[in-house]
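hi!! sorry for the late reply, been swamped w classes. u asked for the two structures so here they r. pasted raw, havent cleaned anything up. first the sequence of the first protein and right below it the tokens
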Amino acid sequence: MLVVIANDLPPAVRGRMKLWFIEPRPNVFVSGIKDATAQTVVDYLCRHCPPESAVMIIKSISTTPGYSITTIGPSKKQQIQISGLQLIVETLKSF
């Protein structure tokens, strides 16, 4: 499975993504494509998306932890790695 979340994709890239993915919300793409095809899509996005697109790609993999996260450009959420796990930092708001 491959999930792509972006702030803004170039029109040509967004049109191409609609060939392989469903778009349940604007700039959120989900597909169950095979691993080899998923890597081709990730490579395509890395080549054609400028940093302003702020893309986060979550790809399922066969090894632990079962997913990998790739980002293009800045992200509002910080990503860290602990003991080989890629994690997204969530800040808690106090009441």
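now the second protein. again sequence first, tokens right under
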Amino acid sequence: MHTSEQAVRDRDFVRRVRRYSPSSLLPLIASTSAQYSDKQWWKPVRRLFPSYRPYRPWALAEVARVSLACGSEFNRKEATAKDLEALLNLHTGLSDPYVHNDARTDPDALWSFMLRITSEQFLYQQPVYPNLARTAAVLTFTEPNKPLERLVDGWEQELLGCSLSEYVGITLLLHTATQLNAGRVDLDSFALPEHRFITDVLPAELITKVAEQHFVTDQERFQRANERRVTNHPDMRRYEYNPLRSTPLVDGYGPGLIAPCSHLVAPKASLLSLYYEGGERFGNAFARDLGTLFEQYVGRQLRLITNADVHPELTYGPKKNPLKSVDWIVVFDDLVLLVEVKSTRPDQEVRLGTDKKIDRLLQNLKKGYEQIDRTADAIRSRATGLESIPADRPVHGLIVTMESFDTANAPFQRQYQPQTDTFVTVTSAAELEDLVVLTDGTLNELLLTRAADPERSTYSLREALTGRTVGHNPVLEEAWASYPWSRIATGGPGTPEGDDGAAGLG
């Protein structure tokens, strides 16, 4: 842990990266990222320092960002593997506002720091299989409960230039190709006869068109995108949005394209990525439609629970002015679980932990807490319309979000949410997908045990699954089977534990 005296200032980090030509440094980063792909980056690489892990994907992506945004070919050194390791070590020591005076003068400094760190790192630790299977599970296989505005016939071609299945298939192809070829992919090579097994599934022309439209950038375009900033604080620059997340393949550095951080290729087909692309193209109607589908998707997941009855949203109270319950009510023998669905995502202000963070988090999650508490009160008071929900057992609340609010249950964040009589936990779709297929023990037992522990109840629900056995999720398996390569890529149906989906296509 670096002290404030030891911390590396951002300007010094940028200056060190600029010592090396992008033409030597970027391909080196790409090949290193491919070598330490998937779950390899965290493995110790030095016998004398068993916890030493320099090749963190977010660090590789940040060195690449600085080289693309600030690098020059004029009078620069050729980067070596030792140079890259030194740059990654510098990244480890980068300064944060928390290590300066903010920690003593701002009571929210620790919270802000945790928001930044989790947002910086957790994106790169999402497994491929569920993250991409969820895309079709929500957008293709989930039926809405009301007419949609924009997610109607033809939206896939208009937004993606192909079907959703083809888009995910192309994403997986590019993801795999970069990891198997030292961080490079040559789009022209897909037209060669030896790649007929690929073009029998997806035409080479389609692969090239979709890749160039959605995945590829060059230094000039990258620099323009990188100029958009939320804050001018020098120590916050590294937490800003990295344009490689939108365009992970870079042209202009040797044959074909390079992926400076191969971990960013697969997320291009995630719900989060499509939310931003769809919102930019279609406006708020796309987000509303996605929220409608996601709410019903959560219900599909809840119905996988084998020892509970699941009720959709109920209307209760006076006939003239009826009220609506939470989105889903799950009734166990010893627990009533009130589930409120929020398709909200942690925006850039939240991820940076800026001064607007409290208002944004309150705005995003406050209604969920309040709706759960109102429904719980109505159940206890035996309100008309809720008589089918038992009032003789504990009531817990679950706010399910599309993306992770990774520390939402921690005391330093929970204190800014409404005080409720009902015990409420924030969880993500990814956690829910595992919780509903728990095979050793039951979900209600897990939730009750966790709530009774003052410390563990402030952790994420992912922690409560540690050491537990999770079965296959049929909703995800159905979606994954709709993609090209699903039968030959590891991580396909029947083997979701091989969730990296990175082999079988080479």
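hope this helps!! also noticed smth abt the second:
Residues 10-120 form one domain.
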